[in-house]
Amino acid sequence: MPELTTTPPLTKLSEEEELFRDTVRDFAEREVRPRVAAMERASTVDPALLAKCFELGLMGIDIPESHGGAGGSLLMTVLAVEELSAVDASVAIFVDVQNTLVNMLLRKWAGDDVKRRYLPRLASDLLGAYALSEPDSGSDAFGLQTRATRRGTTWTLEGRKLWITNGAEAGLFVVFANSDFTKGYKGITAFAVERGFKGFSVGKKEDKLGIRASSTCELILDGCEVPADRHRGADDRRGARRPHGGAQVREGAEAVRQADRGVSGGAVSAGAGRHGARGRPAHGVQRRATRSRG
Ligand SMILES: Cc1cc2nc3c(=O)[nH]c(=O)nc-3n(C[C@H](O)[C@H](O)[C@H](O)COP(=O)(O)OP(=O)(O)OC[C@H]3O[C@@H](n4cnc5c(N)ncnc54)[C@H](O)[C@@H]3O)c2cc1C
Description:
This protein is α+β, with helices and mostly antiparallel strands. The protein has helices at residues 15-32, 36-42, 47-56, 74-85, 89-109, 112-124, 243-259, 265-274, 283-293, and strands at residues 128-131, 147-151, 154-165, 172-178, 188-194, 200-205, 216-227. The chain is built from 9 helices and 7 strands; from the N terminus they run ααααααβββββββααα.
């Protein structure tokens, strides 16, 4: 009789997933917790902590190793976000936005040239932000009004984005705009916008009641010039909708961990399972974790 094979239940972490979770838990206690109060008071993330997150591989958890990432899975991202959330929501959110919105969008929908250009840096030293929401389009993201116009080898973006996480610190912004309003939401596409591009600026930073160390900013696109090859990057409206699948999983992880610090695998695995989150293990993260401990 042929041998029956089954995948392990999502409520049971593999040995590597447990090691990964414990590594992040230890990092959160040793490196994040002592900084939390000062970062909340200063309304900013300690740049040294951000550098440590990159060093540990937490900013490119499921970027493939071929692109310089840790080669992990969505489940591992959720585990990391859950463990960080137990100590500080602000740090959890910047790790989370980087992995589940920015990296995931580029990984799934960008062209090879854009992947080669940005993924290795997103895994090593470049903080990203995901710019979809606007003053009059929050939940109704397909109603966005930012306009993209092609002129020769350059796209010009006109509009305003609001409440963009990591806006104060990010070097790369995935910006959604409509390139053809006659097509309705089907005209929506995305651009990889670097902080230094002409016509791009970061406006007001929100003064929030909580999670203050995580920046939430306005972006101003005033004739922002984007080379045409940065558009081929995320040339698809799907990115405006589908990354939220990943985002919903980790938002669940944040809420669970913040609400009850005693909860661990169960709730996370239930969310991650819906998205087939268990992939191959993040060897890269563990290697780096071992190095940084030594
Ligand atoms: C701290 C913070 C960080 C953020 N970071 C980012 C970011 O990094 N990038 C980004 O693009 N955006 C970001 N946002 C924006 C966030 O995604 C939007 O606030 C969210 O999409 C909701 O939009 P809104 O506030 O305009 O609310 P609205 O869309 O106006 O919704 C208001 C209420 O109406 C309900 N509602 C809306 N539509 C319907 C409907 N059709 N049927 C029934 N009920 C409905 C909603 O559930 C909600 O309760 C952030 C917001 C905050 C507060």
